[in-house]
What does this fold into?
Amino acid sequence: MSIDFSVRRSKLVDMLKELGYIRSFKVERAMLAVPRELFVPDDVREYAYDDRPLPIGYGQTISAPSIVAHMTELLDPKPGDKVLEIGTGSGYQAAILAEIVGPEGCVWSIERIPELAELAMRNLGRTGYLGRVRVVVGDGSLGYKPEAPYDRIMVTAAAPRIPEPLIEQLKPGGRLVAPVGPLPFQVLLVVDKKEDGSIEVRRDLEVVFVPLIGEYGWRDEREALAQLTEKGVII
Ligand code: SAH
It folds into this structure.
């Protein structure tokens, strides 16, 4: 029997509205428009509309829909914005951002693992978002200078601190949302760059993300995981 994903999608969106993760019409519309089932691997497709992260290969995960919705609300992108995402993964979050920035806007998304960048491009291609999303393979902790500055920057991997180049590449009046702090738990930070260039940081929810590996992230997987075992977390 075939699964009616669109029914599941609208039920999930109703639930996320009730729980307060979806608070604006633009995020609701984007979450209804993007087919999450086409961004997850075949073997977990039936769970596409459960509110939980799912494995996408290479030890990485697509975030839970509630986190995607909440981070998009915090970021508050506008039609026409130029957005930078760090950690393309499946491409799902990039597609949500692309829905909101619209045809006048653009999303640049940086992925460290070439195979995932390819997967994301396939997913974005078959769902029609490739024109509005550009995927680049590289170390996103350095940002992406050729297209800077950005109206909005979203980091979807856990950084030990806010990567300095990202602050530099943010427009005055721009906003960055990133999970920051040691593993396993980070805090979502909302960083506003004022018109005069000063920075304001607000702490939001506690979250769990895979590590940002790079020059302004963790040095490698070993370093990121080492501090888990230091804390007595069994992995
Ligand atoms: N936003 C994704 C999920 C992100 S999972 C989605 O919607 O599916 C985090 C991703 O960040 C992983 O794919 C991981 O490979 C990537 N990543 C980790 N460190 C990175 C870095 N320095 N630069 C770019 N991508 C990185």
Summary: The CA atoms of residues 164 and 187 lie 17 Å apart. The domain at 5-228 is CATH 3.40.50.150 (Rossmann fold). Helices lie at 5-18, 25-33, 65-75, 92-101, 114-126, 164-168, 221-230.
